[in-house]
Automatic annotation (TrEMBL):
Underlying gene: engB
Entry's Gene Ontology BP terms: division septum assembly
CDD domains, per database record: YihA_EngB (cd01876)
Keyword Metal-binding: yes
This protein's UniProt keywords: Cell cycle, Cell division, GTP-binding, Magnesium, Metal-binding, Nucleotide-binding, Septation
SUPFAM superfamilies per the UniProt record, alphabetical: P-loop containing nucleoside triphosphate hydrolases
Keyword Membrane: no
InterPro entries (alphabetical): G_ENGB_dom (IPR030393), GTP-bd (IPR006073), GTP-bd_ribosome_bio_YsxC (IPR019987), P-loop_NTPase (IPR027417), Small_GTP-bd (IPR005225)
Protein name: Probable GTP-binding protein EngB
């Protein structure tokens, strides 16, 4: 998709606040510092539509972005960030779960993992949760520019093994620095928009 228009629509915490449209929605989930904002910005050719923050764990709402008036990206709060109290985390968990399991417009979830490391317990839980609810998932391994290309296969195998990856899902190696995987990511997302 060639993106010229992208805007934040609303930061929502409950279903009443979600946009009242039937546009397809693609949610983005991942750990606090996995590069979700950079992923969104790269896909929409903007430097700072999604705020990248030096403080991980900053997104505490569901942020709806409208892309080319044809779909919404929904940035869900990052997980696995220690400085947030357990009660806060439980609240986010409930909010995310409600959105993921009840939102009819949701077409797929982009699950971002850091390519440099084995998926965390939360990464695995998120993947299993999406599989359990039959929510289509696109796994995006970020920060591939930090690994020599010759080692990509090894890292990809490690991630897939840890996630118990379903070969029918998309797996995309991505870098917001080099734009590696940008077209593939769009292709995967567009396949869920019809």
């Amino acid at each position: 998709m060639n993106v010229n228009h992208a805007d934040i629509v609303i930061s929502a915490v409950q279903p009443e606040q979600y946009p009242k449209t039937n546009l397809p929605e693609i949610a983005l989930a991942g750990r606090s510092n996995v590069g979700k904002s950079s992923f969104i910005n790269t896909l929409v050719n903007r430097k700072n539509l999604a705020r990248t923050s030096g403080k991980p764990g900053k997104t505490q709402t569901l942020n709806f972005y409208i892309i080319e008036d044809s779909l919404h990206f929904v940035d869900v709060p990052g997980y696995g960030y220690a400085k947030v109290s357990k009660t806060e985390r439980a609240k986010w968990g409930k909010m995310i779960e409600t959105y993921l399991t009840e939102r009819e417009q949701l077409r797929a979830v982009v699950s971002l993992v850091d390519m440099r490391h084995a998926p965390s317990t939360e990464d695995i839980q998120m993947y299993e949760f999406l599989k359990y609810y039959n929510i289509p998932v696109i796994v995006v391994a970020t920060k591939c520019d930090k690994i020599p290309r010759g080692k990509w296969n090894k890292h990809e195998s490690m991630i897939k093994k840890k996630l118990n990856f379903d070969p029918s899902d998309d797996f995309i190696i991505f870098s917001s620095e080099t734009k590696e995987g940008k077209d593939k990511a769009w292709k995967a997302i567009e396949s869920y928009m019809d």
